[in-house]
Description:
Radius of gyration: 29 Å
Helix content: 25-40%
CATH architecture of the largest domain: 3-Layer(aba) Sandwich
Amino acid sequence: MRKIYTLVLAMLVVGTAFAQKSPDEFLGYKAGERFTPHHKVVDYFEHLASTLPNVKLVYYGESVEKRPLFVAIATSPDNMQNLDQIRMDNLRRTGMVEGNPSTKVAINWMQYNVHGNEAVATEAAMMTFWEVVNPVNAQGKEWLQKQVLIVDPCANPDGKDRYTVWYNQKVNSRLQPDPQSVEHFEPWPGGRPNHYLMDLNRDWAWQTQAETKQRIELYHQWMPHLFVDYHEQGINDPFYFAPAAKPIHEQVSPFQHEFQDIYGRNTAAKFDANNWQYFTKERFDLLYPSYGDTYPMYNGAIGMTIEKGGSGRAGLGMLNALGDTVTLEERIIHQHAAGISAVEVTAQHAERLADEFAKFFKDNSSSPKAKYKSFVIKADQNPARVEALLNLLDKNKISYGFAGNRSGLRGLDYFTGKTASFSTTDKDIIVNAYQPKSVLTQVLFEPEAVLQDSITYDITSWALPFAYGVQAYALETRLDAAKAYEKPSFDQNTVSGKPLTYIAPWYATKHAKYLAALLNEGIRVRIADAAFEINGESYPAGTMLIMRNGNQYVADYDQKVVSLANKFEIKLATSSSSYVDKGKDFGSSDVAIVKAPRIAMVGGSGTSSLNFGEVWYFFEQELDYPISILEADMLGRFDLSKYDVLILPSGNYLNGANFNKVMDWVKAGGKAIAIEAAVGMFADKEGFSLSRFDTDEEKKAQQKTDTEVAKVERLEPYQDRSRMGISTTAAGAIFEVKLDTTYPLNFGMGDKYYTLKNNGRRYAYLNRGVNAGIIPSLDAYRFGFIGNKLKPQMKESMVYGVENQGRGQIVYLVDNPMFRSFWESGKLIMSNAIFIVGQ
């Protein structure tokens, strides 16, 4: 009987081994023959999870277009039985969970296809995961004894399928590597971003997008030791892998440096053995905190970016500059090799990865390394902005508390850039670095990152007090909270009687959401154009007045006004009279009615898909207000009289007949809002006040300077030319903008705003128009990199302005006030431009 049982068991094992299929077998085509749609990727991983006891799928959410987001988890059978213990033990290493770990298993998370048209990644993910979990692969079993492997095969399924569906429609049945063939020209907006055309690889810390929010929630449940992010780069570049380039943030630990080198050498050996080209320590740095390599780094992991040459243009195969055909099959195999290398080195160094991970949190939480150890957020002036900032800290698991009443404190005043004395109240907030999220806290609050090299891949300043427009101080010493934070309870508004006017504040994004909601309900809203006093209370310009007069025919008027205010947690005041103690009475013709604007935005060829996405997301997911999208190439067909506001995202796409058509519409009473590069479409043209230079003499002087610089650059050694080039660029430099507080574009902003300057565009003050926001002098510079030739040009320049044209206006937003949707304070400027300017 025992022999029969053994025979049956052996047959079952063999049967199980043959039940699993490789990607080629399951999909019905070899890797590299075509791109796989997301639903088939899901099917394949479900197949493996259903046939292998040591594979588990975790669905952590869905994309905007309702595609599933999931990770596949693989480890040894013993580890799988103990999986939750391993996970909780790892959280104990961070200090986020109390207790001492009893297991020591490395956690290796590999993410693929966060940029949708870098679609080789998902194909490689299937190949790599299969090799590791294949039951006949003894080496794979050995690797999995030492680690939990987490694979996200497609972090951006909407972008991935946008690319895959388009490409599979355009591809030739016979390989066509000609770069001029249609399959190598992806149309606008391309598959790189998500549904809202946002770059998910720059959203980690900010978590503005649905995919990121859901993924980071799962990330915090695991806190991996290694995080590898798979990408593609231009077809003429071979392959990049760690170690990273400089600048590398000073908070990166010695072991994080060392392990990047360990991985790099292990991967190089595999590539050398196959005579594959690669490079390391160039281009891709470790600074900006919201990438798929830096965010894990600042959370104790070894974060690494992998970049294979090819990207969306390459398709199934395309000629590079050398005349060689770079095929999809080659790209898959190379990324697969880099993935196997990551699994291999994780297994080889599993115990040390766990130990060094624990050391990272223990050392930093007890002795923070950066200059500033504590941060005080003043909450008395703009509590709604502070609330938004605290929501971001919550998403990142950063702890904070109430400051209490203290005096005699000294710290760096973010707004002035100078050390100053200050005191705190029991409403102010303290965030210090003596906590598990020590490094991330310091990085997000640091006024300016230390640059080992000025050539950076992204912005160099992102400090949260500037992004949220809140007064704050950075201290070089430890300052603990006096009391644990408890979110203040919101005292619900109630419907009581029939007040003549409801009074609502206007200084934060949620107030713009409230306005949009009221307009959607057909409720008429007025805006006070100047400060006023009533019932013993003072209110600034921009305050919303929701008056019964004009709304008497709105069904359930009071209930709607009050319930919407409660939804957004906005405290309303009321008045039974329109007579004010100071200022203009509510019936004044200067108290403007906000007409619910009919809004369109230009998109398509020539427009920046990223800036377009920022605005589109703002309307759909934040304001919840209708917006029409007009293709730039089809503007000539459209009736613009159907719209009151036309948003022109960054780009250069209005010319000839289309430019004239837009200007005719503006002069007839329309309002155009031009952002970043789109501002340039109106510059230095006859009939416009917008100019890049103050005078003709200045223009000639600049041209002379440019010629002299060009001569100098030609004499520079060739290898130094990229360094010379950055002298005329800005990489996230923060400037204080002086605002005209009397003008509607700045209502609710206070007298200062801090702009993030990511371009070298400079415009003179408007001669005919409103210079709503200016940089008056170089004293306005605060932090972040700006080239030494560009910086002097910023003085006496216009940042935000409005020019009348006929009966309409053009709003010039030289700097993007909504950069990546995380520059929260700028959203109110955009809201003013949309709803209030010109009313």
